[in-house]
C-alpha cells in the first residue's frame, strides 16, 4: 500500500493527534504517518512521558482493525517493524534486542518505545526511536544509534519504517501471529533471561523468561518452577 508521511514542526503528541482526528470522523488510510520534529507532551507506556531530542524519530500511524485481525498481538508487529528498520543502521547488529512487550534495547539500554491506543476501529501506534540522542532517565539506561555510529537521517528512517510497517501488517494479516511470534523470539532476550515484571500497583514478580504463549502472553518461570502468565505490566531485565 502507499505510504503518506505528514510532517509537522511541533505538536503535543502525534498519538493524541491521530486519536483525536479519528474520533472526529477522519477516515485515515493505512500507510498514513504523522511525524513531528518536536513533541512537548509525548507519552510512553505506563503513563510515562516520552522525552524527545532534535533529530530523533517521533511518529504515529493507524491500523484499521478488521474483525478477523488478532488485535492483541499488533504490538509485536510494530516492534518487528522498528527492529528491521534499525538493524541495518547499526555498526554491530548483535547489540540490538527486543524486550517484552514492545521495547528495543541497544546494548541493554532502551533505544525505542512503542505505545498502542485503541480508538474505534483503529489501533493508533506511536513510536519513538533515539536516533541522535537519548534522554537521561532516573530509572533505566538509554542509548541512541548515534552512540554507536553515525546517526541515521530522520526522514530516510521514517520512509523505511513506513514501508516495513506495511510489510509486517500484511504478513500478520495473511499468516497470523505464529510467524511473528517466532521472529520476535529469535530477536528477543533468550529463554532463561532473568526478568522482573511489575503490575499497575507496582507489585514485582521475578523469574526467568520462558517464552511467549500463542497470544503473546509472557511466560515467567518462578523460582519454584511454576509458570506465571504476564499479560500486562512493565518488564525489566534482571531481578528486583
What topology does this entry show?
Elements (H helix, E strand, L loop, with lengths): L3 E8 L2 H10 L8 E8 L17 E8 L9 H13 L9 E4 L3 E4 L2 E11 L2 E8 L24 H22 L1 H11 L6 E5 L5 E9 L5 E4 L5 E4 L3 E4 L3
Parallel strand pairs: 1-2
Antiparallel strand pairs: 2-3, 3-7, 4-5, 5-6, 6-7, 8-9, 8-12, 9-10, 10-11
Helix pairs in contact: 2-3, 2-4, 3-4
Brief rundown of the structure:
The protein is of the alpha+beta class and 240 residues long. The chain has helices spanning 14-23, 74-86, 154-175, 177-187; strands at residues 4-11, 32-39, 57-64, 96-99, 103-106, 109-119, 122-129, 194-198, 204-212, 218-221, 227-230, 234-237. A hairpin with a 2-residue loop joins strand 6 and strand 7.
Amino acid at each position: 500500500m502507499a505510504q503518506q508521511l505528514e510532517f509537522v514542526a511541533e505538536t503535543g503528541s502525534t498519538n493524541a493527534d491521530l486519536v483525536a482526528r479519528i474520533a472526529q470522523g477522519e477516515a485515515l488510510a493505512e500507510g498514513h504517518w504523522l511525524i513531528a520534529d518536536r513533541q512537548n507532551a509525548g507519552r510512553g507506556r505506563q503513563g510515562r512521558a516520552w522525552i524527545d531530542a532534535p533529530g530523533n524519530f517521533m511518529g504515529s500511524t493507524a491500523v484499521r482493525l478488521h474483525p478477523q485481525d488478532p488485535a492483541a498481538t499488533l504490538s509485536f508487529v510494530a516492534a518487528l517493524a522498528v527492529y528491521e528498520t534499525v538493524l541495518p543502521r547499526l555498526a554491530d547488529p548483535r547489540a540490538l534486542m527486543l524486550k517484552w512487550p514492545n521495547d528495543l534495547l541497544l546494548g541493554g539500554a532502551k533505544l525505542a518505545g512503542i505505545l498502542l491506543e485503541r480508538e474505534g476501529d483503529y489501533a493508533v501506534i506511536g513510536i519513538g526511536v533515539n536516533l541522535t540522542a537519548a534522554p537521561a532517565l532516573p530509572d533505566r539506561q538509554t542509548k541512541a544509534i548515534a552512540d554507536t555510529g553515525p546517526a541515521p537521517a530522520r526522514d530516510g528512517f521514517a520512509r523505511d519504517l513506513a514501508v516495513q510497517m506495511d510489510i509486517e501488517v500484511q504478513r500478520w494479516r495473511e499468516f497470523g501471529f505464529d510467524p511473528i511470534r517466532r521472529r520476535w523470539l529469535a530477536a528477543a532476550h533468550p529463554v532463561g533471561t532473568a526478568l522482573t515484571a511489575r503490575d499497575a500497583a507496582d507489585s514485582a514478580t521475578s523469574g526467568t523468561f520462558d517464552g511467549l504463549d500463542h497470544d503473546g502472553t509472557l511466560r515467567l518461570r518462578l523460582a519454584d518452577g511454576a509458570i506465571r502468565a504476564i499479560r500486562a505490566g512493565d518488564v525489566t531485565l534482571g531481578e528486583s
